[in-house]
Amino acid sequence: MSPRLRSSIPCLFLVALGLSLAAGTLIACGGSGGGRPSSSQSADPVIVTVNGRPVRRSAVDAVRAEFRLGGNSDTEAKALKEAIARELVRQEADRLGVVAASADVRARRKTMAAQLGGEAGLVAALKRVPMTDVQLQSDLEDGVLREALQNAKYPQLSATREAARAYYERHLRQQFTRPASLHLGAIQVPAERIAESALARLRAGRPFAEVARQFTTDPEAKANDGDLGWVLASSLPAPLRKSVAGLKPGAVGKPVQGPGGWYVLKLVAKRPARVTSLAAVERRLITELTSQMRFKALAGWLAAARDKATLSQP
What we know:
Elements: H1 4-8, H2 39-43, E1 46-50, E2 53-56, H3 57-69, H4 76-96, H5 102-115, H6 119-128, H7 133-153, H8 161-170, H9 172-175, E3 177-178, E4 181-189, H10 192-203, H11 208-215, H12 219-223, E5 227-232, H13 238-245, E6 256-258, E7 261-271, E8 274-275, H14 278-308, E9 311-312
Antiparallel strand pairs: 1-2, 1-9, 3-8, 4-5, 4-7, 6-7
Helix pairs in contact: 3-4, 3-7, 4-7, 5-6, 5-7, 7-14, 8-14, 10-11
C-alpha cells in the first residue's frame, strides 16, 4: 500500500511515527487537593484544570515534543489546546471504561522504530528533537487510547465494500500501481571515444565497478562503483531509456549520449509494472476507511466537549 494513503486517511494504514493528534491518556499527574504541594508537584505545576482535573506542565511538554518529532510547530498555545483535548478524551475513556492496551502501545513503538531503521534510529531521532522516552511513551498511549475510544463510541460506523472499491478506483494509478523500475549501473564520461574505451575494457572482462571507478566523471557514481540503484524507467531521459530497453539483466549497452555527456549503462535487474488487485487490499481498505469515519465522528464530539468543558487556571 502506498504511503500516500496515510495522508488522506488519518490514523489508518501506516502508523506514521506511531503518534496521533487529539488523543488521550497522559501519564497520571497527581490531584489538585489542598495542603502543601510536594516537590514533584512544584516541579510539574498545573497549567489548567479541565472539568476539575489537572493538566500539568509535563503533559503540555509531551505534546510539544511530539509536534517537534513530527516536524510541526510546537507553540505553547497549540500544545496547550491539544493537551486539553487529550484530557477530555481521557475523561470520556474513563467514563466508558476504555483503556490503552499495553500490547498495542508496544506494537506501535516497535513499528515506529522499524520505520526509523531500528531502535538505534528511534533513539537518535528522539535525541535530535529532543524528546524523552517518557514523553514518547505518553504520546504513544495517547494515540492508542484515542483509537480505542473512537471504536468504543462509534461501533455502528463501518465502511462498506462499495466504499472500498470506490476509493481503490479513484486512487488506482497513484497508490496501487507500481511503475516499472530498473536497477542500473552507469559510467558517465565527457566524450564518445572515452565511452568506447570504457566499453572495450568491460568486453575484455574487467569488472564494471572497476571500470566505473576509473572512467566515470560523476563523483557520486564513482563513490558507488557506478551503481545507480533502482530508478523508475519513466524517469530516464529518452536516449538512456531506449539504450537499455532491449537488454537482459547483466548486459551492458552501447555508448549513448545523454544529459551531461556519454553513458555506458549496465542493466543489473528490472521490475515490471505491477497493479495490486482490489482483492488483495479490500479488507485493509475497509478497516482504514472505517477508522477515518470514526476519527471524524470523535473529532466532532471532541469539539462539542471542549465547548462545554469547565476550564480554569490556578
